[in-house]
Prior knowledge:
This protein is of the alpha+beta class and 282 residues long. Helix content is 18%, strand content 37%. The chain is globular and about 50 Å long.
Amino acid sequence: MKMYQVDAFSKVLFQGNPAAVLVLDQWLDVSLMQNIAAENNLAETAFVKKMDDQNYAIRWFSPEVEVAFCGHATLASAFVLFRDFTSAKCINFHVKDLGIFIVHQAEDGKIHMNFPIRRPQRLIEYPELIHQAIDRPIVEVYLNAQAYILVCATEADVREAQPNFDVIRSLAGPDLLRTAITAATIKESEPSLDVAITANAADYDFVSRYFAPHIGIDEDPVTGSLHTGLAPLWAEKLGKNQLVAFQASARGGELHCVMKENERVEISGYAKLFMQAEIIVE
């Protein structure tokens, strides 16, 4: 079987988030898909089943479990399909429990993905253990379907924070909640939000990092799914519908977010092919 490895949310190699992609005529056995993902040892391996030239079912596996939603592997899969499997410029991914993701590719190669919003709610009461998840002060705590979102005062807090993975694992509990941290980076001429910035990140509306050690990902390089919660959060805080985000992992990645009608958000980025290979499974 042919397998691709793609760096998602990056124009260049060795940045963004690498994902493996396999395009299938029929699903493989679940245990085989999980073993392939474990062998790859990437944040996610995506399996795409063709329905027709414009419609595809998609599933995602971390090294340890099948996950409900993965944005960067969706971007990687769309990149592969547009490159080698369809002449269409707009395709639909059919996703269990989340409906249809509409994805199109612009002339410059940028891929735009239309996702349902997973809007976070601010928590007034939350586990006290949350304050031990990172070694920086936490200003606010939010929760959506995917993660506790811990809002920090400054971008430096986000970039320099040291996560406590044992605490984060315990926070996940039976609901497998991830932990994310995020902070705004706004211009000094916009003091109403009372958020400090660092000079080398003034080009972004917000930065984030993401931790999910309980599914085999200590820190995810770039997380598209997380931004279906972060984008509406910062759109409300900043009073704008178009935002540029940066996930401040070691690899890093840029995400372009646009709030849409009907509780949808468009998340866009580029991708770069690293490898295509033939895998041998008996």
